[in-house]
């Protein structure tokens, strides 16, 4: 049986319209809004975070970089030509440059070359306009938010909604930023502690793809820490190490000496037949929680068997079936661009088929 056929067999109840067993409810399975509700609003804007909170996300995820004057702001990368209108701003044309970031040459405009005041004159844009055409209607409306503004939004919405809303910040390229005088780990801890986030049971996870900053953070804060890992490459601060090596045997126990969890790329959680790879069980055995990244509804990001067709990559595929298979591995939560449908499915409102079979 081919891998696509096996995946369909495993997920046949949902694909055929039968009810599925309930997945973990409430806080037992976390919905983490990846860059906000970025499937519906330009990512890392207050509007995207606010939308995610409205849709029931347990946590919102701001990726953090630094400005020239040392302010933490929310951008997926410090290079901002894909997520703002900076390339169309003649007053900043001379800021275009090439930098070596984590061993790769990157050309564009970088947050560390802008003061906060300058950065605030820019406006956010949809990063994936070909896949998310509807989101382009919001281009030009929103500023780049600071971490302080994200925290203020969370606190205001908590008061309004009567529930805790978590923060799941990622420090981006911390070794690179340290090389130019910005200690992202220290900056983040100072700001979180000042805002009252200090204890292990506060609704915060701090994450990084690098190792050394997490080891430092383990001595600086009691807030939970998450080691991010991907299917390829390795931590930029440890050039001789790969993520694959970090996930083998006793290496998981080494991660557990400084981190509380793993943030794992989805394709490391399910094999080609749609079954668990065993990584979640191994991580649990080492005392680590596991959250998976990143679940998105568009065909472009789904396994072929769960796509609604063969050609339109922007079309909505069987997002719910993928979520069900992922939850069955035992993960404690998932990062998603689409917290609304994820929360509806978690709440047992989406237990019947909304899916069409992909092509055979």
TrEMBL record:
The keyword tRNA processing does not apply. Residues 1-24 form the signal peptide. Pfam families: GDPD. It comes from the Bacteria. It is an enzyme of class 3 (hydrolase). Residues 29-346 form the GP-PDE domain. CDD domains: GDPD_ScGlpQ1_like. Its EC number is 3.1.4.46. It catalyses: a sn-glycero-3-phosphodiester + H2O = an alcohol + sn-glycerol 3-phosphate + H(+). Keywords: Glycerol metabolism, Hydrolase, Signal. PROSITE patterns: GP_PDE. Belongs to the glycerophosphoryl diester phosphodiesterase family. This is glycerophosphodiester phosphodiesterase.
